[in-house]
UniProtKB/TrEMBL annotation:
This is Transcobalamin-2. Disulfide bonds join C22-C258, C155-C197. GO terms for molecular function: cobalamin binding; metal ion binding. Cyanocob(III)alamin binds at T142, S143, Y144, Y145, Q146, D186, N235, Q282, W397, Q398, L399, L407. Residues 1-21 form the signal peptide. Interacts with CD320 (via LDL-receptor class A domains).
Length: 428
């Protein structure tokens, strides 16, 4: 029998198996609907730059407000047509998300302008690949996360990804993907989604199909093994993407990993941990049993146009700073310089964000200074005490709780207790 035929039989066999994907129990639907509405509300904020990840999440939902989604798409296309990424940055990931958004909108891709977007992403991916190759470097320009996202986006559009590009991702999968110096389950998951899409694409030779199949399996195993006692894969934020991979690979929800992680995600959602548009938009699809792979088969027909902005959902549970004060010891470390650049205690109202702490320090007598950059994830800390962390030298200001616990949120979202916070200049 022809290999193609065998492959087809295999796919039909898999489809016939009675496995249900990792899904949440139905009784949580009001909570999920509120997350959906929160994202819809965010999409209506004209002062914020439109975010393709938010658009994709709205599209993968089971409920829609088609008019508002269409308006958002217009704004998204408007921005992407006029500007292409921040200065110097190739914007690989942004462009990939934009392409996913176009497919999720069932937009016609056969126009000169649209073909050009695809070509541009291929070009970016090549530049990323060449950087990995360039002597003694081994890293793409942005990150393996964006590299994977780009491969996924091309694959979702049925475009062939250069096998050299795939090979580089396969090579790196054999090591661990990292986030700073820690394992990055987000990146494992995104690479796994890309491998799974490539495996099913019917565009590659048997050797490549076999290699991406094994890589997808290996990534899934790494993720399952990383499950914590609380049920998360890595931390709670990487768990959303990890579950997308389990959904895409049709991991049975009868297996214990699934209900455990779903419970953890819903608990965190209830507790208000998902605060910024990026984390919310990565979570919503999995709560509707969807992954980014489902974008490939979207038809945009007969969708339920039932979502209306109302006030039935509780406002996000941000603690309003009160009158109780807390004391945060703020330490700035710039290895290898042994002396601390800064070490003083700051008083702020309980419930303040870390950003509020840094601002209070800046206004204090001790000459603390910092700069930030606005992103969809909140404010990114770029410069501390005049020391700027750049993409070029692959350094960043890591946020830690003493002695060495890396924070899982950025300065906009993290609310310190009475504790010591360390800002440490680190390679990544
Ligand atoms: C790559 C990456 C990094 C790189 C970014 C550098 C680079 N040039 O790529 C580095 C290692 C520097 C980094 C740092 C941090 N990161 Co990070 N990062 C990611 C990752 C894996 C991919 C982001 C990406 O490329 N997205 C795709 C592009 C298209 O979107 P983008 O919006 O343009 O991406 C930019 C921002 O996301 C920004 N960024 C990256 N991380 C963070 C974190 C925060 C809080 C902010 C405001 C911005 C930001 O860098 C990206 C590239 O320019 C995500 C995983 C995920 N699930 O999203 C985690 C993730 C976003 N990071 C996270 C965290 C917690 C951090 C740190 C706060 C860790 C720490 N304790 O210090 C620091 C930021 C500290 C600071 N100075 O403000 C969390 C955020 C969770 C949340 N609640 O919002 C995530 C989701 C990982 C996780 N599961 O914990 N990160
Ligand atoms: C597109 O951009 C132009 C100019 O920046 C603006 O005038 C117009 O209102 C925008 N359209 C939409 C749908 O946002
Ligand atoms: C922080 O410490 C202050 C005094 O040291 C105390 O009054 C307050 O209750 C503490 N707050 C928290 C959240 O622990
Ligand atoms: C910071 O300063 C405090 C005293 O203000 C001191 O006890 C502590 O050891 C210092 N920490 C570091 C890491 O230098």
């Amino acid at each position: 029998m022809e290999p193609r035929m065998l492959q087809l039989l295999f796919i039909l066999h898999v489809l016939a198996l009675p496995v249900q994907p990792c899904e949440n129990p139905k009784e949580n639907s009001p909570l999920i609907r509120c997350l959906n509405l929160e994202l819809l509300r965010l999409s209506q904020d004209l002062s914020a730059e439109p975010n393709p990840s938010v658009y994709v999440a709205l599209r993968l939902s089971a409920e829609h407000n088609l008019e508002k989604e269409a308006e958002y798409l217009q704004r998204l296309m408007n921005v992407s047509a006029s500007s292409s990424g921040a200065a110097g940055q190739p914007g690989t990931g942004r462009l990939a998300l934009y392409l996913l958004a176009l497919r999720a909108a069932c937009e016609n891709m056969e126009t000169d302008q649209r073909r050009q977007v695809v070509t541009q992403l291929k070009h970016h991916l090549h530049k990323e690949m060449r950087r990995i190759d360039s002597q003694g470097y081994g890293h793409p320009i942005t990150s393996y996360y964006q590299y994977s996202l780009a491969a996924l986006a091309l694959c979702i559009h049925g475009k062939k990804v250069d096998t050299h590009v795939i090979q580089k991702l396969l090579n790196n999968e054999k090591h661990k993907f990292t986030h700073g110096e820690e394992p990055s389950m987000d990146t494992e998951a995104m690479a796994g989604l890309a491998f799974t899409c490539l495996e099913r694409a019917n565009l590659y030779d048997d050797g490549t199909v076999e290699a991406v199949h094994l890589a997808a399996k290996s990534v899934t195993e790494k993720i399952l093994q990383a499950q914590t006692a609380q049920g998360t894969f890595g931390n709670i934020f990487s768990s959303a993407l990890a579950v997308q991979l389990l959904i895409a690979t049709r991991w049975s929800k009868q297996k214990p990993e699934c209900p455990k992680v779903m419970a953890a995600l819903l608990e965190s959602l209830k507790g208000g941990d998902f605060q910024n548009p990026m984390t919310m938009s990565q979570l919503l699809p999995v709560l509707y049993g969807k992954s980014y792979l489902d974008i490939a088969s979207m038809e945009c027909r007969a969708e339920s146009d039932t979502l209306v902005l109302d006030t039935s959902c509780p406002k996000s549970q941000l603690v309003i700073p009160g009158t109780d004060m807390i004391t945060v010891q703020l330490i700035v470390e710039h290895p290898p310089h042994p002396e601390k650049l800064y070490n003083h205690s700051i008083q702020v109202p309980a419930g303040s964000s870390l950003f509020d702490v840094l601002t209070a320090a800046q206004d204090g007598p001790e000459k603390f200074t910092f700069k930030t950059q606005k992103t969809q994830q909140g404010l990114f800390l770029t410069t501390v005490m005049g020391v700027r962390a750049g993409d070029r030298d692959r350094r960043y200001w890591q946020l830690l709780r003493a002695p060495d616990i890396s924070l899982e949120q950025g300065i906009s979202n993290y609310q310190p207790q009475n504790e010591t916070i360390i800002l440490k200049f680190r390679p990544w």
